[in-house]
Amino acid sequence: MQNMQHYYDFSGQKFGYPLSLSINSFKRQVFSRQSSLEISYVLKGAYEAVTEHFTAGIKEHELVIVAPNDIHMIRQMDNDKSVILTLHIDFSRFSAGMCGNIEEAFESMICTRSKNYRLLCRLRNKIGELVRMLLRGESSMFQMNAIMMELVYIASNHRQYPVERLPLQSVHHENYMKAIQYIDCHFSSELHLEDVAKTLSFSVSYTSKLFKKYTGISFVKYLAYVRIRTSLEALLEGKDSIEQIAADCGMPNSKSYTAAFRELYGIVPSDYRKKFTQNIKMNENHKEQSMSFDIEQKELLEHLIADTQEVLYENDGIKITQQEGHIQCRIQHELITKTTITQTDEELVMEFIRK
């Protein structure tokens, strides 16, 4: 059962809106693929981002961009205390004239203090603006639209930044990803471990061990979880019956769907849908409460609200920022530096030399 302690969800799905934001401490064991752009920002702890192209760790206040239609999993590296904020921007809810062809517009990458740092700062700044809106209870649709489109623009402008390209870990990892991709393409139909083993030209017993090693769960449970996660959007939209949703995602019947859903989320699908549409969540005492930020969530988000300036440059002793047209330079007091400032008609150059 997933840890619901830090759970918060703002989803535009119920309004037909492209943007959603969630905060959770879920343990991910299932790969997913969606048509939306995903930006996952670590509020606490550490996570591992696994995609078809790279595997990399991200720590507190770092993030990963997941391009639309990239198969991926973002899982905790530490324990249940890790908390992550995830944004999804669903391009299927845009008109074709607004976004055009998104296939080549984005690339999955990590943004840390050592890789793509400027991009990290720009995205963190915009996420902070969005969080501030939600914390204050503001509901300006045009302002939210502006923030959303700036996030899209910044994330899509990847050609200005180094692309994270980490090699696959091993041949076993490559075979594992082939199995994941096969399941991702065939989960809605009748699927057995024998089918996956045949695709890899492995024995059933070896394929079973491969799954257990890399996911920590059996093939049967993994397949059920994939189907459940894929069904969430249809469930939350509220148009189809539970029976229809179960059939569409490949589950044998609504009973098995409900059992797997309860095992994963600790609640039956019908109650999950009801609480979502009524903007209700369960607290740690398993009591209903309105979907709002609690004290601990606000503390985790505080740095996003306070740090709204754009960081132009930063190292362990110097930070240069821009806010509302003003450029500020902060130097730690214990640093002994020699400062040279040169001004021309077009630029101001500041040189800091440590003694």
Topology:
Layout: E1 8-11, E2 19-24, E3 36-44, E4 46-51, E5 55-59, E6 63-66, E7 72-76, E8 83-90, H1 96-99, E9 109-111, H2 117-135, H3 141-156, H4 171-186, H5 193-200, H6 204-215, H7 219-237, H8 242-248, H9 254-265, H10 269-277, E10 280-282, E11 288-290, H11 295-306, E12 310-314, E13 318-323, E14 326-331, E15 337-343, E16 348-354
Antiparallel strand pairs: 1-2, 2-8, 3-6, 3-8, 4-5, 4-7, 6-9, 10-11, 12-13, 13-14, 15-16
Characteristic key phrases:
about 350 residues; alpha+beta; Jelly Rolls; Arc Repressor Mutant, subunit A; six-stranded antiparallel sheet; 11 helices
Radius of gyration: 22 Å
What is the fold-level CATH name, i.e. the topology of the largest domain?
A: Jelly Rolls
Shape: globular
Strand content: 15-25%
Major sheet details = 6 strands, antiparallel
Strand order of the largest sheet: 1-2-8-3-6-9
Low-confidence stretches: 159-169
Q: What is the straight-line distance between the termini?
A: 56 Å
The domain tally reads 3
Described by its quaternary structure, the protein is: single chain
Structural class: alpha+beta
Instruction: Give the topology string: H per helix, E per strand.
Output: EEEEEEEEHEHHHHHHHHHEEHEEEEE
Number of strands: 16
Which CATH class of the largest domain is shown? Mainly Beta
InterPro entries: Homeodomain-like_sf, HTH_AraC
Pfam family, one: HTH_18
Keywords: DNA-binding, Transcription, Transcription regulation
GO molecular function: DNA-binding transcription factor activity; sequence-specific DNA binding
